[in-house]
Amino acid sequence: PLMVAVRENLPQYARALLASGADVDRADRRAWTALHFAANGPNFELCALLLAHGASAARQTSGGNNALHLL
Predict the structure, then answer these.
(1) CA distances (Å), 11 to each of 1, 7, 16, 52, 63, in order?
(2) Model pTM greater than 0.85?
(3) How far is CA 8 from CA 3, 38, 41, in A?
(4) Cα distance between residue 12 and residue 66, in whole Å
(5) What is the number of other CB atoms lying within 10 angstroms of the CB of residue 60?
(6) Which of 21, 34, 51, 56 lies 20 to 30 angstroms, CA to CA, from 43?
(7) How far, in Å, are 19, 57, 67 from residue 50 at the CA level?
């Protein structure tokens, strides 16, 4: 759900999910996390929100990209 909220650019839902304990670093089958999707947008508001909740900027996708590579 957090990745969907980020992909759909719904910061209010992302905030609510994070407040409810959503796993900020949960990854999909390609090893993309919500932060990867936010950076790929790019959506700096969501990037800041995810980082403030402990998202790992160093985590890599299956293609070897971290969030900074996607900005």
Answers:
(1) 12, 10, 9, 13, 26
(2) yes
(3) 8, 10, 10
(4) 25
(5) 16
(6) 21
(7) 11, 10, 11
